[in-house]
UniProtKB/TrEMBL annotation:
<dbReference type="InterPro" id="IPR003439">
    <property type="entry name" value="ABC_transporter-like_ATP-bd"/>
</dbReference>
<protein>
    <submittedName>
        <fullName>ABC-2 type transport system ATP-binding protein</fullName>
    </submittedName>
</protein>
<dbReference type="GO" id="GO:0046677">
    <property type="term" value="P:response to antibiotic"/>
</dbReference>
<dbReference type="GO" id="GO:0005886">
    <property type="term" value="C:plasma membrane"/>
</dbReference>
<keyword id="KW-0046">Antibiotic resistance</keyword>
<keyword id="KW-0547">Nucleotide-binding</keyword>
<dbReference type="InterPro" id="IPR050763">
    <property type="entry name" value="ABC_transporter_ATP-binding"/>
</dbReference>
<dbReference type="InterPro" id="IPR003593">
    <property type="entry name" value="AAA+_ATPase"/>
</dbReference>
<dbReference type="GO" id="GO:0016887">
    <property type="term" value="F:ATP hydrolysis activity"/>
</dbReference>
<dbReference type="Pfam" id="PF00005">
    <property type="entry name" value="ABC_tran"/>
</dbReference>
<keyword id="KW-0067">ATP-binding</keyword>
<dbReference type="InterPro" id="IPR027417">
    <property type="entry name" value="P-loop_NTPase"/>
</dbReference>
<keyword id="KW-0813">Transport</keyword>
<dbReference type="GO" id="GO:0005524">
    <property type="term" value="F:ATP binding"/>
</dbReference>
<feature type="domain" description="ABC transporter">
    <location>
        <begin position="5"/>
        <end position="235"/>
    </location>
</feature>
Amino acid sequence: MHAALSLTGLRKSFGTSRAVDGIDLVVPPGAFLGLVGQNGAGKTTTLSMAVGLLRPDAGRSLVFGHDVWAAPDEAKALIGVLPDGLAMPERLTGREVLTYQGLLRGMPRSMVDQRADELLGVLELDRAEKTLVIEYSTGMRKKIGLATALLHAPRLLVLDEPFEAVDPVSAATIKTILRGFVAGGGSIVLSSHVMALVEQLCDHVAVIDRGKVAAAGSLAHVQDGRSLEERFVELVEGESAAAKELTWLSR
Ligand SMILES: Nc1ncnc2c1ncn2[C@@H]1O[C@H](COP(=O)(O)OP(=O)(O)OP(=O)(O)O)[C@@H](O)[C@H]1O
């Protein structure tokens, strides 16, 4: 059986700075993997290359065995993506965004309408009916982005910080949707800075540090008997930085 996602030797430099430095990662089918790492570690760059939004300098990304660059139609039909800093058609309403995306994917209009109704309802995007995306809050943009990623019922979801700026009620809804997606046989890769959330939701973890995989595997394997936060700090050697103080703030 093919892996849901298989990354081999992914590399990307921006100018002289190497953002991703040889990432190898396998996401088994049915896995819910949390990708964690410090700011600038290379998570977004890795995920963008994994889904075919950014061309790597070297390496491959296979989605259920389909190369995202050599066989983009097959690969992209299987993935739903919530990219970082989502570029959206700003002058459309939330419903129009879903209709546009659904029709672009070749879905029948009746199916697009029915799923859009359900997604807007479940994600409580009531205002989305009439409000243009340009007027959305950050959290609403995340939610309509997630709805877009789910619309065509993909087999793999790749979500860049899906809970960022989302209120607790909506976060609970999103967690339920994602758990249901995995229970139904789907696979998920999500990036997050919130270790508690990764521990709560994910069964696999990959820790990225300075463009490389510092640790990857089942949650229990990576935790190695400690909390994910403790293990993370240890792996990325961030303890000394975390302990630094601004002495001039003390009175
Ligand atoms: N388009 C770009 N041009 C130049 N440098 C970039 C570009 N995109 C990313 N970088 C650099 O690549 C490195 C990795 O960035 P990336 O956004 O992948 O990190 P990240 O782990 O997602 O960080 P964060 O947690 O802060 O979102 C950083 O040093 C960043 O400055």
